[in-house]
Amino acid sequence: MMDAGRQKHLILAVTDAIIAHAEELTALDQAIGDGDHGVNMKRGFEAVRADADNLAMKPLPDMLKALGMHLVMKVGGASGPLFGTLFMSLARDMPADPSLAEAGAALGHAIEAVKARGKSSVGQKTMLDVLAPLQAELANVDSDNVGPRFKRAAAEAAQATAPMKAIRGRASYLGDRSIGHMDPGARSVWLIADAICDALATPVPNEERP
Predict the structure, then answer these.
(1) pLDDT tier at 140 (50, 70, 90 boundaries)?
(2) Domain extents in the chain
(3) Taking the complete model, does pTM exceed 0.85, yes or no?
């Protein structure tokens, strides 16, 4: 059940993961982008974390919408609109207490929204290259070991962006020189997916309850 305590636990897990890995994300972006992905993501997720108590009290769809708005306003660059679009689109289709199938359907619609926003598609070395395999896992009717499968899919998909040649975004200007580097947006989605799985699999500490 997605009560306020569980939602705050999720928010803190996700925001702490991004904040803790900000330097890694920056280093990835320095290799193939503007070098500001980690700094920008950290700023946005710090704003989300600061509002965790308020966000957690909202129904899940409203929480996702408000979280996405924080990211649009605070992250900046290309990542703000893309990650903001992801969460705000999830909000439109996610029930307050979703099943795996309902979460998968909502993520499918969110992926289409991100594609439209970024004018990009799967296979172009972007966050979509992790989102699409995650959506496929959620669409799998077999719910056994879904957490480990979800985490494995995120890891494998993010790592698979390294040998890709970038087609969209700043990295595309490098052409073949973009090959050999993991996409920072893909790594961010991997971090978020890992954090969600870990938070859903662990009890909510009393000190995290709003």
Answers:
(1) confident
(2) 4-205
(3) yes
